[in-house]
Design a protein that fits this description.
Length: 248
């Protein structure tokens, strides 16, 4: 999936969070957006997904050259856009496997039988090194931070999206768990080479596992510098306080 952001300006509570931002992610590309807290990284992920309460002042978001601004969240999901949440919610009384099955049905993704669905779910639970009873527990209730993140990737593997947004995936994951989920994502990308990825992160740790084609630095609501993975290593070495300037 190709996604293009054109001259996007966004207000939240009358404060400009994104300011004339441009970004193009082609099919099969992996892009990382880095920056300190409060610069608009997570806002960008929610705008792409179609969250309400964000005032788009100007600009557009295109998927395969078609604007998606008027589409609701569920319609964007049907296109194949998937957001891995930074802070996943919990739902008491709704079993994990029931919610995932409902998500599949809502996105018109079907298996030949319920048994085939259960086999696929169990296979991916094992792949992510999750406890076997995860499928039969209330959605994220009593899950640790790392288990919630693994559960996000479980949904990803079942829903098979075409454009993946990873919003602070590495927060809440220990070193071993991060490797497990990143290995699962990399395997998915090998099997689905036209899938595009947008990684939103503070740190380079996740980028050591999922190597980006491009790295962008976000500051004051706009991308002030772009480069390859070496830019991420420069940030790790010198931090965000160095004097990046547009086009430098």
């Amino acid at each position: 999936m190709q996604l293009e952001i054109q001259n996007l300006s966004v207000l939240v509570d009358n404060k400009k969070i994104l300011d004339n931002l441009n970004l193009k992610i082609n099919k099969g590309e992996i892009h990382a957006i880095m920056g300190p807290n409060g610069v608009g990284k997570s806002t960008l992920s929610k705008i792409i997904m179609g969250y309400p309460n964000y005032n788009i002042e100007s600009g557009d978001i295109l998927v395969n050259s078609n604007s998606i601004l008027k589409l609701e969240i569920n319609e964007r999901s049907k296109l194949g856009i998937f957001l891995v949440y930074q802070n996943p919610i919990s739902i008491e009384g709704v079993l994990n496997r029931e919610l995932i099955k409902a998500s599949l049905d809502a996105n018109d993704i079907s298996y030949k039988s319920f048994y085939e669905y259960v086999l696929e779910l169990d296979k991916n639970i094992q792949k992510l090194d999750m406890q076997k009873d995860m499928a039969h527990r209330s959605f994220n209730v009593g899950f640790s931070g790392g288990e919630k993140k693994k559960n996000e990737i479980l949904q990803l593997l079942m829903l098979k999206p075409k454009f993946i947004i990873l919003d602070e995936l590495d927060s809440g994951l220990d070193v071993d768990s991060l490797k497990v989920v990143c290995d699962a994502i990399n395997d998915y990308l090998k099997e689905n080479p036209t899938t595009s990825v947008l990684i939103i992160t503070h740190y380079t740790r996740i980028l050591e596992y999922i190597k980006p084609n491009y790295v962008h630095v976000l500051k004051d609501g706009n991308i002030i510098k772009s480069g390859d993975y070496n830019l991420a290593k420069l940030i790790e070495k010198d931090g965000y306080n160095q004097s990046f300037s547009v086009g430098e």
